[in-house]
C-alpha cells in the first residue's frame, strides 16, 4: 500500500479570513499520533474548531479544521506534521506501510545567554522571537541585577536542527536585535551537554513548600462558582452498549486552548487507541467529542476500575489542564504555573509565552523566572516560577493577576 508523499498532509487554506483552514492527514497509524499532531498545531498558535479521526489500526485518516492568527507559516506547519507521521520522510517520493521505525536521536540542547538593559515586556519580546524561530524553550533562568541589567539563560532545542551552524545563530541574533533594539547588550549561543541541563532541574528535596500537592490541588473542584475564571463544567460518559468492539467515550465541556491536545495526550498516556472520533464546537464555547476507543490489546474498556480511572483523569485534565497559583515570598509575590508532562517527556507548548504576555498586558515586570520539572502527586510537572516586580505604582490585585494569566492560558481572551 503506497501513497504519494505530497498527499500525506494536505492543507487547504480558507479563502476568507473568517473561515477555517482544512488540514487532511493520511498516513500509517500509531498510538499517540493524534496527540503529536495536536501538539504541533497548538505550537503554531492555531485552534482546532472541528475534527474527524478514523483508523483501522494500521492506516489513519484525519481531518482538522483550524483557525488562528494571521501570518501562519503553512508550509512550515506542513513540514512539521509530515515529520510526526510514521514512515514519512521529506526525501521519499512514495512511502509504504509497514516500515522499520528507528528510535529518534535525542535533540541537541543549546544555551542562549541574553544580556541587556531591563524594560517592561522585555522577557516576553525575547520569548516571542524564540517561538517564531521554532526555538523550543526547555528550561529558563532569568535574573535582574540591582543596576537594571537582565541575564536570561534559555536552554533551547532547535526544531529545525540548524542551531549548530553559524548562519542559524546569526539569524537568531539579528531577529532578537530587530525586536529588542538597544536594550540588547549581548547574545551568545553554545551547545551544552546533558550534565549542564541536568543542573537546571532542581531535585525534589529542594522544592519549597509552596510547590506541593497542596498548592496545586489535583482534585476536581465540583463546587466551583458559576462565572469564575476556573468554571468549566465537564461531562465524561463511557458506553459499551453501542458497539460490539469499541468503547464509546462522550465528552461535553467548555472549549479552551489545546482542548483536543489535552484529550489526546491523556489517551496516549493510557496507551489507548482511537478507532473513530469526531470533535465539534457548538456555538462559541461548548464542545462535543465522541471517541470510539480500544485498549492496547485491541479490546474494549470493560473493567470498572479502568473506566473510572479514565473518566476521572479526563475530567480533571479538561477542567484544569494547568494549575495557577500566587504565593507570598516575604514582601514579594511569586506566580506559579504547573503544566503536566506527557509520559514521553514532552510538555505543553507556549506556556511561558502566554505567562509573559499576560504579565506584559498587566504592565507587571518580571524580576526573575525559572522553569524546572518536579514530581508532584506522583506525576511529572513542568513548573514555571515567576517572581513579580510590581514596582512603585499602584499594586495590581492578586486575583486580577491570577485571572488574567489563567484566561490567557485557556484562550478565553
Automatic annotation (TrEMBL):
<dbReference type="InterPro" id="IPR045865">
    <property type="entry name" value="ACT-like_dom_sf"/>
</dbReference>
<dbReference type="InterPro" id="IPR040217">
    <property type="entry name" value="ACR1-12"/>
</dbReference>
<dbReference type="InterPro" id="IPR002912">
    <property type="entry name" value="ACT_dom"/>
</dbReference>
<protein>
    <recommendedName>
        <fullName>ACT domain-containing protein ACR</fullName>
    </recommendedName>
</protein>
<dbReference type="InterPro" id="IPR056805">
    <property type="entry name" value="ACT_ACR9/10_C"/>
</dbReference>
<comment type="function">
    <text>Binds amino acids.</text>
</comment>
<dbReference type="InterPro" id="IPR056816">
    <property type="entry name" value="ACR2/9/10_N"/>
</dbReference>
<feature type="domain" description="ACT">
    <location>
        <begin position="111"/>
        <end position="194"/>
    </location>
</feature>
<dbReference type="Pfam" id="PF24926">
    <property type="entry name" value="ACT_ACR9_C"/>
</dbReference>
<keyword id="KW-0677">Repeat</keyword>
<dbReference type="Pfam" id="PF24914">
    <property type="entry name" value="ACR10_N"/>
</dbReference>
<dbReference type="GO" id="GO:0016597">
    <property type="term" value="F:amino acid binding"/>
</dbReference>
<dbReference type="Pfam" id="PF24931">
    <property type="entry name" value="ACT_ACR9_3rd"/>
</dbReference>
Amino acid at each position: 500500500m503506497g501513497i504519494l508523499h505530497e498527499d500525506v498532509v494536505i492543507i487547504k487554506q480558507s479563502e476568507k479570513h473568517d473561515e477555517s483552514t482544512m488540514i487532511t492527514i493520511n498516513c500509517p497509524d500509531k498510538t499517540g499520533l493524534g496527540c503529536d499532531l495536536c501538539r504541533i498545531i497548538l505550537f503554531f498558535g492555531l485552534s482546532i474548531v472541528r475534527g474527524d479521526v478514523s483508523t483501522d489500526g494500521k492506516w489513519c485518516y484525519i481531518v482538522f479544521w483550524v483557525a488562528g492568527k494571521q501570518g501562519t507559516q503553512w508550509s512550515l506547519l506542513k513540514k512539521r506534521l509530515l515529520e510526526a507521521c510514521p514512515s514519512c520522510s521529506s526525501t521519499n517520493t512514495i512511502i509504504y506501510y509497514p516500515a522499520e521505525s528507528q528510535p529518534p536521536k535525542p535533540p541537541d540542547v543549546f544555551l542562549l545567554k541574553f544580556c541587556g538593559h531591563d524594560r517592561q515586556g522585555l522577557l516576553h519580546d525575547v520569548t516571542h522571537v524564540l517561538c517564531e524561530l521554532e526555538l523550543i524553550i526547555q528550561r529558563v533562568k532569568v535574573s535582574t541585577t540591582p543596576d537594571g541589567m537582565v541575564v536570561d539563560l534559555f536552554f533551547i532545542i532547535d526544531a529545525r536542527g540548524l542551531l549548530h551552524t553559524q548562519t542559524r545563530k546569526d539569524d537568531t541574533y539579528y531577529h532578537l536585535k530587530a525586536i529588542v533594539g538597544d536594550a540588547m547588550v549581548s547574545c551568545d549561543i553554545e551547545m551544552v551537554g546533558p550534565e549542564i541541563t541536568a543542573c537546571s532541574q532542581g531535585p525534589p528535596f529542594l522544592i519549597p513548600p509552596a510547590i506541593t500537592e497542596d498548592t496545586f490541588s489535583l482534585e476536581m473542584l465540583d463546587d466551583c462558582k458559576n462565572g469564575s475564571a476556573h468554571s468549566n463544567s465537564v461531562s465524561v460518559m463511557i458506553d459499551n452498549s453501542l458497539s460490539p468492539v469499541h468503547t464509546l467515550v462522550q465528552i461535553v465541556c467548555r472549549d479552551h486552548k489545546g482542548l483536543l491536545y489535552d484529550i489526546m495526550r491523556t489517551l496516549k498516556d493510557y496507551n489507548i487507541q482511537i478507532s473513530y472520533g469526531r470533535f465539534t464546537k457548538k456555538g462559541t464555547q461548548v464542545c462535543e467529542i465522541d471517541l470510539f476507543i480500544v485498549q492496547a490489546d485491541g479490546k474494549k474498556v470493560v473493567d470498572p476500575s479502568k473506566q473510572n480511572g479514565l473518566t476521572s483523569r479526563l475530567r480533571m485534565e479538561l477542567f484544569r489542564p494547568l494549575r495557577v497559583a500566587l504565593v507570598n515570598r516575604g514582601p514579594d509575590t511569586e506566580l506559579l504555573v504547573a503544566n503536566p508532562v506527557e509520559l514521553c517527556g514532552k510538555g505543553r507548548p507556549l506556556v511561558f509565552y502566554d505567562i509573559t504576555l499576560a504579565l506584559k498586558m498587566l504592565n507587571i515586570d518580571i524580576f526573575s523566572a525559572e522553569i524546572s520539572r518536579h514530581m508532584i502527586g506522583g506525576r511529572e510537572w513542568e513548573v514555571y516560577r515567576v517572581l513579580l516586580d510590581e514596582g512603585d505604582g499602584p499594586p495590581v490585585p492578586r486575583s486580577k493577576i491570577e485571572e488574567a494569566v489563567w484566561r490567557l492560558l485557556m484562550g478565553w481572551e
